[in-house]
């Protein structure tokens, strides 16, 4: 737990440092993002009531060529494509997605009946950009697309919508969207027809500006887990800073780009990959209604020409492992940050399946956390037993170690250490035997620390006074903010800190004091740590604090039961006394330690002689 707290403190400090370092850049980045999507003024925009239709047509032909008719003024309309999980609206202006809404009952905004919207439609936009013969930038949103239907629902089979922008001489730009039942993946294709002399081979660029809406309890915690994740072809998943504004220009082709907002993601995926020289950036808005402002500029491998074609898919859904996996994109599940290496494997293949299995039979997720904790503690019990047995041996030796400390008080520390090691060797006690069990438990301990902030299954689930196990709980709210603490009091954090204090007292109360000169007293450190946990975990998910509290209570019970019914310290003392009488053969490690101590002592004696001279 101490290592976890140190790690959390470092991570928080790192994010704050990143935010401070990037703060001056955000103003510049905001200006860049605001200006990037804007093309030269279109002829349509310049029209007014006094401008004749003939003049508009002439201007449009000069700018859009054969697509001139598609650029005439028209009212924006929307086509709805949906299934049981998502509903997307496709705009007639550009033929791209206008909004995405999750329909399942579990996916609602915190303390609201409103379903989760993946972006703010008023401040978000998709476009395809290219250049005409004179070098002017054209955007697909300047063109009007006609839909094959206004509503398409994927119930018994896939639903398909075709949107077409039609110009003169049979010139067309066409979008085709397809959605399967019970899927979060919208497949789409783009195609140009009959435009031999219009697009001039310029690169096609997909542009996506997205402003994420705050959905969760606590905007700061939500922002700390929101960023752009991406994968370069044949490379590992990567991401922009989650703690501040950031910008990257990946050098290689991109497989996918995901705009992650804590528990939800809007992403675009290309099997063949987007071309090189992509531009990805995020910034932190000044208001509290938005998580992050995301921008992605992705060159397509298809150039603007008469036979231009491109295929990709959108993932619009929750950060749930199975749902992300169903996208088919490599490393797409790594959008969920379960932790690195062995910690990630423990969460993906042990903890997560256990939670989801129990959720099929038990509705109360607080109870599921209690059951999972009991299962984990039962699995770790052999390790706990070894650790306690080692501690019992050390407690039996405590009077003799205290006697050595008293004998060498104020004297040479090396001699005291040699005497202590001689006692361990004589009694057959290994002072490091308790370290290995602790190290073996660390992957589970850290895995749970990473699991609770990342797992969507706990989102919106209540237990006792906690209204959301994926967010902090509060038993008292303030009208002001306390630095490094917050504006609320977490009840589960207080219980966890109190149980940690009791557990540390029980586990270290009868241990021998093994401090060296200049080294801190571990008993004092653990007392301070128990208090500091109130600050470290006050804004962490209440499910995490509940888990650690339950684990501490079980550990206290195990320690009491083992000491009272299973470990007889008198029997251990008898064995230690018997070991003292047996002839001892020095092991290789013990011999090397003793030899090092002798060399060190010889150097100290030599230095003392020099000083006397």
Architecture overview:
Strand 12 and strand 13 form a beta hairpin. The chain has 14 helices and 21 strands. 36% of the residues are buried. The protein has a nine-stranded antiparallel beta sheet with strand order 6-8-9-10-19-16-15-12-13, with no helix packed on it. The protein has a six-stranded antiparallel beta sheet with strand order 5-4-11-18-17-14. A four-stranded mixed beta sheet has the order 3-2-1-7, with no helix packed on it. The chain is elongated, with a radius of gyration of 32 Å. The chain starts with a helix and ends with a helix. The chain folds into two domains: 336 residues, Beta-galactosidase, Chain A, domain 5, CATH 2.70.98.90; 238 residues, no CATH class. It has 613 residues and is of the alpha+beta class. Helix 6 crosses helix 12, helix 8 runs antiparallel to helix 14 and helix 10 packs antiparallel against helix 11.
What is the overall pLDDT average? 81
Question: What name does CATH use for the topology of the largest domain?
Answer: Beta-galactosidase, Chain A, domain 5
What is the makeup of the main sheet?
Answer: 9 strands, antiparallel
Q: How far apart, in Å, are the first and last alpha carbons?
A: 51 Å
Q: Write down how many β-strands occur, each being a DSSP E stretch of 2 or more residues.
A: 21
The amount of beta strand, in percent, is 15-25%
Helix content: 40-55%
CATH class assignment of the largest domain: Mainly Beta
How do the strands and helices of this protein lay out in sequence?
Elements: H1 2-35, H2 53-64, E1 78-82, E2 86-91, E3 97-102, E4 125-131, E5 137-139, E6 146-147, E7 151-153, E8 159-166, E9 172-179, E10 185-193, E11 203-213, H3 219-223, E12 226-232, E13 237-239, E14 246-248, E15 254-261, E16 264-274, E17 279-283, E18 290-303, E19 309-318, H4 321-325, H5 341-359, H6 365-379, H7 381-407, H8 413-427, H9 435-454, E20 476-482, E21 486-489, H10 491-508, H11 522-536, H12 542-566, H13 569-581, H14 588-612
Parallel strand pairs: 1-7
Antiparallel strand pairs: 1-2, 2-3, 4-5, 4-11, 6-8, 8-9, 9-10, 10-19, 11-18, 12-13, 12-15, 14-17, 15-16, 16-19, 17-18, 20-21
Helix pairs in contact: 1-11, 5-6, 5-9, 6-12, 7-8, 7-9, 7-12, 7-13, 8-14, 10-11, 10-12
């Amino acid at each position: 737990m101490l290592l976890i707290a140190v790690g959390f403190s470092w991570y928080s400090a790192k994010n704050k440092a990143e935010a401070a370092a990037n703060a001056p850049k955000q103003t510049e980045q905001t200006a860049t993002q605001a200006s990037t999507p804007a093309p030269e003024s279109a002829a349509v925009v310049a029209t007014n009531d006094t401008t004749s239709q003939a003049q508009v047509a002439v201007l449009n032909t000069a700018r859009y060529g054969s697509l001139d008719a598609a650029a005439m003024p028209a009212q924006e309309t929307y086509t709805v494509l949906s299934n049981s999980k998502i509903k997307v609206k496709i705009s007639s202006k550009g033929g791209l997605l206008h909004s995405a809404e999750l329909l399942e009952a579990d996916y609602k905004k915190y303390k609201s009946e409103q379903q989760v919207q993946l972006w703010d439609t008023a401040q978000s936009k998709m476009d395809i950009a290219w250049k005409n013969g004179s070098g002017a930038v054209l955007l697909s949103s300047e063109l009007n697309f006609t839909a094959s239907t206004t509503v398409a629902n994927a119930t018994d089979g896939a639903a398909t919508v075709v949107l077409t922008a039609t110009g003169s001489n049979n010139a067309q730009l066409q979008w085709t969207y397809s959605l399967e039942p019970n899927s979060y993946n919208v497949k789409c294709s783009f195609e140009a027809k009959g435009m031999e002399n219009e697009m001039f081979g310029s690169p096609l660029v997909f542009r996506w500006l997205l402003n994420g809406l705050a959905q969760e309890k606590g905007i700061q915690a939500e922002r700390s887990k929101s960023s752009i994740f991406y994968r370069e072809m044949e490379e590992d998943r990567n991401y922009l800073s989650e703690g501040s504004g950031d910008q990257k220009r990946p050098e290689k082709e991109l497989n996918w780009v995901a705009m992650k907002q804590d528990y939800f993601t809007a992403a675009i995926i290309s099997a063949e990959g987007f071309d090189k020289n992509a531009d990805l950036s995020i910034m932190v808005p000044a208001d509290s209604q938005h998580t992050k402002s995301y921008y992605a500029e992705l060159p397509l491998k298809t150039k603007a020409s008469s036979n231009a074609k491109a295929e990709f898919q959108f993932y619009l859904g929750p950060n749930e492992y199975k749902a992300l996996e169903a996208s088919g994109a490599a490393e797409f599940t790594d959008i969920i940050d379960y932790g690195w290496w062995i910690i990630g494997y423990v969460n993906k293949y042990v903890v997560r399946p256990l939670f989801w299995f129990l959720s099929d039979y038990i509705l109360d997720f607080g109870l599921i956390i209690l059951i999972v904790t009991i299962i984990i503690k039962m699995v770790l019990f052999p390790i706990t037993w070894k650790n306690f047995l080692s501690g019992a041996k050390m407690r039996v030796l405590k009077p003799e170690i205290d006697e050595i400390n008293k004998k060498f008080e104020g004297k040479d520390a090396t001699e005291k250490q040699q005497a202590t090691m001689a006692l361990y060797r004589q009694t057959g006690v290994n002072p490091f035997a308790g370290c290995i069990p602790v190290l073996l438990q660390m992957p589970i301990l850290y895995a749970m620390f990473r699991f609770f902030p990342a797992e969507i299954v706990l989102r919106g689930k209540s237990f006792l006074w906690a209204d959301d196990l994926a967010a902090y709980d509060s038993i008292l709210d303030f009208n002001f903010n306390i630095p490094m603490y917050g504006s609320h009091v977490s009840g589960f954090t207080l219980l966890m800190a109190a149980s940690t204090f009791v557990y540390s007292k029980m586990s270290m109360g009868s241990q021998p004091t093994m401090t060296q000169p200049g080294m801190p007293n571990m008993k004092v450190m653990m007392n301070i740590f128990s208090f500091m946990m109130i600050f470290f975990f006050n804004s962490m998910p209440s499910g995490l604090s509940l888990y650690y509290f339950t684990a501490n209570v079980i550990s206290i019970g195990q320690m009491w039961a083992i000491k009272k019914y299973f470990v007889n310290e008198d029997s251990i003392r008898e064995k230690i006394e018997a070991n003292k009488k047996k002839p001892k053969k020095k092991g290789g490690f013990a011999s090397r330690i003793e030899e090092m101590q002798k060399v060190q002592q010889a150097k100290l004696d030599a230095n003392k002689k020099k000083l006397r001279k």
